[in-house]
């Protein structure tokens, strides 16, 4: 009887989960001669494409996706188009709704939840949903780009020429640094455009490495981007935003980038969640109270450090544990481990302990600049900055995070190998 692994989501974590599962299933067939088709891998997602979400702050955003149909055909992954409505853990079934509104139920033996995240839209900010833009999903980013291109058609006014980025985190900073160059290309706006970043924390980029912040502020100042720290957005209307300082900033373009929350589907899985709604998973990315469910990407909160000696009171990792962040540099390896482990569990093999000690943060800072900080545990140091870091950021955005070639079965499956480590090509300054 055929067994089934369902992967919910076709983003970075979902794609890598599917490839990793197929890789191990095929390896098992080669080693034992058991039929590979005894375990099928099914991906359920709204569309058969990977949205390159880290690039949605860039221009020409409609092109920021990669088709997955041929890759799935090559690797033997079955795709079902639909939005998952519910996960029934007790009966191990998933209910999804397709584009015509038809519901279907499909059972699973193992499940990988990799359905991503959304912007947090606080109900405490009146007008937020009605009057703001966002870049957390492709459709919203396309809407923002079309709006920017149409600004010159509107009467010249302060509100027309002012862009307010609500949130000074990773996404907000990359968008803010990108906007001056994009606005300069939009004829008819003139040179009196303003880009303002509003961040409620007292520091820019609260989640960024400390050493990165001065460079970020210097670059934003050089680009003419204004920064307001220790300030929250308290309201948004058709003519602007109101801040906690009582200021009303005239703008037709408030862009909300402040905060992220995991897909609501995590709430259907029993077990502890973190402040972002992510499932607190075991060392192999399994959900503790739903043993047939694994989670990866923005749906999971996992230890990244080497926690093999947690029983040792002197172990620094046990004292200061490191956890995953909502970013593709975590999502891709987490997907590899989750998919591999889901398949291993069905095949009766040991699962692998997820660990990702070496990390890096690469922040795009406009047309000519970027900054790269390499991290290992609590230690962080600037490795590249300015124009020297730009080729690395471009390689990440345009090559590293894209799907493998569908023309090479072995290479495509190897992309799902949990042992994969990012190797920066020579010539990128590292």
From TrEMBL:
Its cofactor is FAD. SUPFAM superfamilies: FAD/NAD(P)-binding domain. It comes from the Eukaryota. It holds the Pfam family Pyr_redox_2. Coiled coil: none annotated. Residues 4-330 form the FAD/NAD(P)-binding domain. Keywords: FAD, Flavoprotein, Oxidoreductase. Belongs to the NADH dehydrogenase family. This is FAD-containing subunit of NADH dehydrogenase. It comes from Apiospora rasikravindrae.
């Amino acid at each position: 009887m055929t067994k089934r692994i369902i992967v919910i989501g076709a983003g970075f974590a979902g794609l890598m989960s599917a490839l990793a599962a197929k890789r191990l299933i095929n390896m098992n067939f080669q080693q034992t001669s058991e039929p590979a088709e005894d375990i099928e891998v099914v991906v359920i997602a709204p569309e058969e494409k990977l949205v390159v979400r880290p690039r949605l702050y860039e221009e020409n955003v409609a092109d920021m996706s990669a088709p997955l149909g041929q890759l799935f055909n090559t690797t033997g992954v079955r795709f079902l188009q639909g939005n998952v409505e519910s996960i029934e853990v007790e009966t191990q079934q998933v209910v999804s709704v397709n584009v015509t509104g038809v519901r279907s139920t499909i059972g699973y033996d193992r499940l990988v939840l990799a359905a991503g995240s959304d912007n947090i839209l606080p109900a405490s900010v009146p007008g937020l949903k009605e009057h703001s833009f966002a870049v957390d999903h492709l459709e919203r980013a396309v809407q923002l780009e079309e709006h920017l291109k149409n600004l010159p058609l509107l009467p010249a006014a302060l509100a027309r020429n002012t862009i307010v980025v609500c949130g000074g985190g990773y996404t907000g900073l990359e968008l803010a640094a990108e906007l001056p160059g994009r606005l300069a290309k939009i004829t008819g706006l003139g040179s009196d455009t303003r880009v303002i970043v509003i961040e409620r924390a007292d520091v820019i980029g609260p989640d960024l490495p400390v050493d990165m912040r001065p460079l970020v502020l210097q670059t934003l100042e050089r680009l003419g981007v204004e920064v307001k720290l220790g300030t929250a957005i308290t309201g948004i209307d058709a003519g602007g935003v109101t801040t906690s300082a009582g200021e009303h900033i005239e703008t037709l373009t408030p862009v909300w980038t402040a905060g992220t929350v995991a897909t609501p589907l995590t709430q259907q899985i029993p077990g502890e969640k973190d402040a972002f709604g992510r499932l607190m998973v075991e060392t192999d990315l399994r959900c503790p109270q739903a043993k047939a469910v694994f989670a990866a990407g923005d749906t999971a909160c996992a230890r990244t450090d080497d926690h093999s000696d947690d029983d040792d009171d002197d172990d620094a990792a046990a004292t200061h544990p490191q956890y995953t962040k909502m970013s593709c540099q975590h999502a891709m390896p987490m997907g590899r481990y989750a998919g591999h482990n889901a398949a291993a569990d069905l095949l009766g093999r040991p699962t692998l302990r997820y660990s990702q000690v070496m990390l890096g943060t690469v922040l795009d800072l406009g047309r000519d600049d970027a900054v790269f900080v390499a991290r290992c545990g609590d230690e962080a140091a600037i490795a590249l900055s300015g124009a020297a870091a730009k080729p690395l950021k471009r390689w990440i955005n345009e090559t590293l995070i894209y799907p493998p070639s569908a023309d090479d079965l072995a290479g495509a499956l190897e992309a799902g190998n949990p042992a994969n480590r990012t190797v920066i090509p020579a010539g990128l300054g590292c």
